[in-house]
Each structure stands twice: as structure tokens, then as C-alpha cells.
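re: that chain from earlier
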Amino acid sequence: MQDRIEKSMQYLFSAPEDFDETAESLPLLIYLHGAGGRGHDLHVVRVPYTAEKFCRDRGKRLLIAAPLCEYDSWYCCFSELIAWVRFIAAQPYVDPDRVFIMGSSMGGYAAWTMLMCTPELFAAGAVVCGGGMAWNCERMKHIPIRAFHGELDTAVLPSENKRMVDAVNACGGHAEMILFPGVGHNAWNPALLETDLIDWLLAQTRYHE
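^ sequence. v structure.
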């Protein structure tokens, strides 16, 4: 992965080894980390490396961008985060109809919120052990969403994600909940490594009204 900085945000960036960003545009996965990644060290954010290895081992042509939260939470810098998301999604080497967002724990809450705030940007969302404002879910009703949670999670209760999934579907949306039996808070590894999440994301295309 490469270390980059833009819009005052540090971020990790990954692309296939043979990728030519001057001649090709690819789908993009934006990953928002949890509270354990906060600070000033990009390399504490481990999940993007897991996703990068998964994609390379299986020949998946997917860009990955993972910004760093240097504040107490994503909500302390949310305007900055929105500006960065808009920046990275608008790059000529990104397929604008295949931009996805994934967040875990603190980043899961931020991913739900980002899907609400900028629904026009995303083709799909994957939220791991997150939650949010269920009353505002109608804004996401055209976005396919998968929510993942460990059944034994006590840090973020599974009911947090389920409330959001139920609210999206009550608005006529397309959300589903995947519970991992016997799993606690770390549901991000099984979400990436034990499901078809990456293939599912790559099959999605942005909705145009």
C-alpha cells in the first residue's frame, strides 16, 4: 500500500500491481477504520492490508483508499472526511459508478452516516459492527447495503446494525444483515475473508435516477 495525503488527510492507497492510473479507471473501495486506528500512524490501520492481500491473491481489480482519523472520532472531522471522499471519488482513475464504502466499528457508524450524507456517490455499502440514525434511512434506499456483525459483540451490540437494516428495508431499500455465530467485535476479518463481500461489491453499479 502507498501512503498519500490530500485534503489534509493521510490515507492508504492500493491498486493492482499493473494498474496505470493515466489509462484506466477501476472500482474503488473506501474503508473507514475503527477507534483503534485513531492517531497519526497510518500503519496501525490494518484492515486495508488484509483487503489488499485478498484482492491480489484472487486477482480482483479493485482500488482501496483508507483515510486516517487523527481526531477523537470521525464525527470530529466529518466535513473534512466528506471533502476527502468527494476528492477521491472524482479522480479520473476511479470508475464513478462503482464507488463503495466500508467501515468497521467507529468507522461503521461513519459509513452509515456517509451513505446518508452523500448517497449520490455510492454504488454499495458494507457496514461492520456499526449503527446510526435509523430515522434518516430513506436517503439510502437505492443503495445495496450489507451489514456484518459478530453475534457475541458486546462493544457494539448487533441490534445497532439490525435497527439500520430494518429501517432501510422499511423504506423500500435493499439491506441485509449477516451475523457471525461465536464471533465478537472483530467481524471485519470474516466479512472480508469468509463471505463473497468483494465479489458482491464488484457486481454493484451506482443507481441513476
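Helices lie at 47-58, 78-89, 106-117, 158-170, 188-193, 197-202.
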